[in-house]
Amino acid sequence: MYYLTRQTAFEASHYNRIPELGDAENFALFGAAANPNSHGHNYVLEVMVKGDVDADDGMVINLVTLDALLKTEVLANYDHKHLNRQHPVFAKNPHLQPTCENITMEIWQRLVPSLPEEMLHRVRLYESTSNFADYYGDGPMVYLTKAYEFSAAHRLHSHVLSDEENQDIFGKCNNPAGHGHNYVLEVTVKGDVDKRTGLVAGLNFLDEIVQKQVYARFDYKHLNVDTPEFETLNPTSENFVKVLWDVLVPNLRPVVLHRLRLRETPKNHFDYYGA
What pathway, per the record (predicted)? Predict the structure, then answer.
């Protein structure tokens, strides 16, 4: 089985507003996206298809065919459009919010009839470089990811090892004075899209939880010195991503945490899905 990903992009504007609610209630639900004057994004769309390689042409699907489908079904309906007013689905239903989650599902529905059965594997839509949604055709289940950057120092040192062993294993990362990173934490939550709001989880809610549980604890801190979580625990990124999971899970409920990805440097990142 082979998996092929094709990327395209489009520009669109929209707003998120429940018609029967006033400004205060809409802004409480959607934040700045409730601005009735609209806002816009440079969306990036990734479409992943799967299948066996054709014995004659050596391809899963002809990219010319896939590009033509994306042009007629996606770009024609989304590119340089105001989604609330000009999209054939969202314009007819003012209660269907053009959120990243709903757009991802709507694009899936547009593409799947024109592809061989079970060929479409995933639709991923980037609303920005730090916010994207994944849809696998699983009912209303969508995976929403938002990325957060913070800064911290640490020293890799295990209290159960000798100084010589620590130096051998961790090298310059064992520097007694410590070193630091601009960490990037990707928080992926999953759930059914709320029919009323079009959201899996409010981005304001995610931001508030990350602010309280990640930034307040770890941003601009020396992990070994300033944080009780690492008084005796070696602050490797493997340990760090689990600590982050443990502090986020109870505070995100009822939202379900699916995955954390901790980027320590551009060269390496660490994923954790729970125990």
Answer: Cofactor biosynthesis; tetrahydrobiopterin biosynthesis; tetrahydrobiopterin from 7,8-dihydroneopterin triphosphate: step 1/3
